[in-house]
Design goal:
heterodimer; A: Rossmann fold; Rossmann fold; 3 domains; five-stranded mixed beta sheet; 13 helices; B: Rossmann fold; seven-stranded mixed beta sheet; two-stranded antiparallel sheet; disordered N terminus
Chain lengths: 364, 256
């Protein structure tokens, strides 16, 4: 079996990429994820892989697309504002249906934000973020082990659906060290990449072109492609993903009379809160979405109907809350605990388990 | 009389063996179609069509991807250089070249453009300089010379209002990572042949594995946005454009 080592979440993501046979890493340093690029800069050359410190995040994401165009797995990582800069590239990749893994180790707040813990990029990651109505699969690790495992899964899903996949980590997950078993995952078979550019001499079929809508639709005598068909193709793909790729985890949720919904770092606090509440006789349970898109709305609705009461906890002003309310459709009252639940008012603030238990008691 | 005409039917070149799959969508008098032809001649004569990747971004040349019977991709406006960088780094045997416009290379993509040379990426970059942003309707470009009227410099480019224009071939020649820099034009048959030699040399650097980036700037006419008849645009090139942007080689080294 694989070795178990003590590393932080950022390094686990880097190691997960290597386990997934990522061939190119491009990135621009930004706190709190610079450790990923630093690790890659040392390891990738030794493994015969390509590491590029890009001139900015825009270049980094397009280097990822370039690797995908040539058929190689690639990843970039950034934090919040850097992710905004990458949005153009992620949109381009979505349009051209190019795979790639984009890691966002979140900070808190808009603009430059803080450089510490926050979950304020949920909406940006799950609703597209950039222009044009695209979607990305979004995976949210809550432990260092999941950083390693979900990074590998991200590469698999990116290739399976030919799209960018976002790994939404955060400061706390990135800088928290835990024991990790480094076992390479076999996620399943993948179709042959029959779209990649290799040069026409290296194969028997005709010229291949990779581009987005405008490249094919505008002026292409005899080579017209239906824009409508292509846009509906995205929709069909999104539907297939929504039907088959939902992942979530639960803790003590079966007999719960109060369902807590939380993701990523905050779900760790919520899990501890559920444990503490149970000691006090409060029948609480946790449902933790692992895929933030596709969102496990059906599972949340069923669990919410069983419990009768719902508490959403996020380190923001209520973003996943909208998806939970949409899923429950008013059948059960939903309470929210966000930024107001932080223990201190500085950037180092966190929503501690005790505060979540206090919120539970105010509902019951 | 007819004999005199026949004497002029001297064949001075032959079509390349690889040809565009369709007709071009370029405006009458535009040189982009001529550029496509010269690029295909070079790729054909160097025997690299089977391992060539053409990369372009937004702009009038964006649709050019459909004209190249080689593998090609259409990146974004500016960072398509980053895309090409990744392909070449991962697959050094491929010949990767980028077709750029004034905006992609010199404005929105300037950072990517400069860093491509600084990292000594083994790419061949061709800039088509038509003094304006053609596809969006002839607005000022970084290459628009002082005094020139465009749709965003209605009183002519004013140094105080709009800043100065850039001379790209001279600019990149100063980078150690630049192994070839030249400026050609496509307004006359003689210039066509000169430009073809420059483009050929730029590709040969990459084929030989010379450690650095090769660059050619090609002056092209944009009669539509210059508000001129095609023939007048040729006179403009001769009298105004080429004196502002002199033709020739600015760098040619074989550092391996």
């Amino acid at each position: 079996m694989g070795d178990k080592i003590f590393i932080d979440g950022n390094e686990a993501i880097a190691r997960g990429a290597i386990a997934a046979k990522c061939q190119l890493y491009a990135g621009y340093p930004i706190t709190p994820q610079s450790e990923i690029g630093e690790f890659m800069s040392g390891e990738f050359p030794k493994l015969g892989k390509v590491f590029i410190q890009a001139e900015d995040e825009i270049a980094a994401i397009f280097m990822v697309e370039g690797a995908s165009v040539a058929g190689d797995r690639a990843m970039t990582s950034t934090s919040s504002l850097g992710f905004s800069l990458m949005s153009e590239g992620i949109s381009h990749m979505s349009s051209a249906e190019m795979p790639g893994v984009v890691v966002n180790v979140m900070r808190l707040g808009p603009g430059a934000g803080t450089i510490q813990e926050g979950q304020t990029d949920y909406r940006q990651a799950t609703k597209g973020g950039g222009h044009g109505g695209y979607r990305c699969i979004v995976l949210a690790p809550c432990s260092v082990q999941e950083c390693f495992d979900l990074t590998q899964l991200a590469f698999y899903l990116a290739d399976k659906y030919r799209m960018p996949v976002v790994l939404l980590s955060s400061y706390l997950i990135g800088h928290m060290a835990e024991g990790v078993e480094l076992s390479t995952k076999d996620c399943g078979p993948l179709p042959e990449k029959d779209y990649i550019l290799t040069g026409t001499a290296n194969r028997s079929d005709h010229v291949r072109r990779i581009g987005g809508l405008s490249a094919f639709g505008m002026r292409s005598p005899g080579v017209h492609e239906s824009i409508t068909k292509r846009l509906l193709g995205y929709k069909e793909k999104h539907q297939r993903i929504a039907e088959s790729e939902i992942r979530y985890d639960s803790y003590q949720a079966d007999d719960a009379q109060l369902l807590v919904v939380a993701f990523g770092s905050t779900s760790r606090m919520a899990k501890e809160a559920v444990r503490l509440a149970r000691i006090e006789g409060i029948k609480a349970g946790l449902l933790r979405p692992i895929t933030l898109w596709p969102f496990p709305g059906k599972a949340i609705k069923e669990a919410a109907l069983r419990a009768g009461k719902v508490l959403v906890v996020e380190d923001n002003n209520g973003q996943m809350l909208e998806d939970v309310e949409c899923a429950i459709q008013g059948h059960v009252a939903v309470r929210f605990l966000g930024i107001e639940g932080r223990n201190i008012e500085t950037a180092s603030g966190l929503i501690h388990p005790e505060r979540i238990v206090q919120e539970m008691k105010s509902i019951l | 009389m007819s004999q005199g005409l026949d004497n002029k039917k001297k064949v001075i070149g032959k079509p390349p063996n690889i040809v565009p799959p369709g007709v071009t969508g370029f405006c009458p008098g535009c040189h982009y179609g001529i550029f496509t032809r010269v690029a295909l001649e070079v790729i054909d004569e160097l025997g690299i069509a089977g391992r060539t990747i053409h990369d372009s971004g937004g702009g009038c040349y964006g649709g050019a991807m459909l004209l190249y019977p080689t593998d090609n991709c259409h990146g974004a406006h500016g960072p398509d250089l980053a895309l090409a960088t990744a392909i070449k780094r991962l697959h050094p045997d491929l010949i990767v070249w980028c077709q750029l416009g004034d905006g992609a290379a010199l404005s929105i993509g300037l950072s990517h453009f400069v860093h491509t040379f600084l990292r000594e990426e083994q790419l061949t970059l061709i800039l088509l300089n038509n003094l304006c942003y053609g596809q969006t309707g002839g607005q000022m470009a970084p290459t628009t010379p002082l005094g020139m009227v465009t749709t965003t410099t209605p009183g002519g480019r004013d140094r105080k209002l709009h800043g100065l224009n850039i001379h790209t071939a001279e600019f990149v020649a100063q980078f150690e990572g630049c192994v070839y820099s030249a400026r050609g034009a496509l307004d006359t048959p003689a210039h066509y042949e000169q430009a073809k030699k420059m483009i050929t040399t730029a590709f040969q650097k990459q084929i030989a594995g010379v450690n650095g980036t090769s660059f050619v700037e090609i002056l092209t006419a944009c009669p539509t946005n210059w508000g001129m008849k095609p023939v007048d645009s040729l006179n403009f090139m001769k009298e105004k454009m080429i004196p502002e942007y002199p033709l020739g080689e600015f760098k040619n080294v074989d550092l391996i």
